[in-house]
Amino acid sequence: MVHRIEPPPEPPVTLSDPSALLTGYLDFYRDAVLRKLEGMSEAELRNSRLPSGWAPLGLLKHLAYVELRWLRWGFSGEPVEEPWGDVKVRHEPWHVEPTETFDDIRTFFLEQCARSRLIVAGARLEDSAATLGGHVPADEDRPTLMWILFHLLQEYARHAGHLDVARELADGTIGE
Fold first, then answer.
1. N or C: which end of the chain has fewer CB within 10 A?
2. How many other CB atoms are found less than 10 A from the CB of residue 154?
3. How many domains does the chain have?
4. What is the CATH number for 94?
């Protein structure tokens, strides 16, 4: 039996402020990702049905770290103790500790999203990243906040599509 998840509303079609449009769509996709994971069993959240080996819970943790790396560590230049906490071995599936639960990772994800919103609210779209997580020479190009937000949007859109497939394979649930 197929169960359908109804999508959250998109930002208004009349929205013309670039900042509001970018942040509105980021929130749209953040919500979509969480809604696709809600109701999955702990086993399905940790199970991979794909040859690459990633699991839905790992993808959520990855997106939390994407927020942390791009906006806190990179754009703001905040010191971050473990910016790659979602990756233990390069080019391997995202890492989830056996003791980490969906609620733990969901809480961490929501904290990173809230922190990202504060960073974006205090900056201009044309502002450049502070460090990108390291020491960037003064003459090296750094991405603007607008570029980073577009990058995050494509990351979320791609991974939301991945979750569509994983969820349908897990329990037949489909939705936007």
1. N
2. 10
3. 1
4. 1.20.120.450
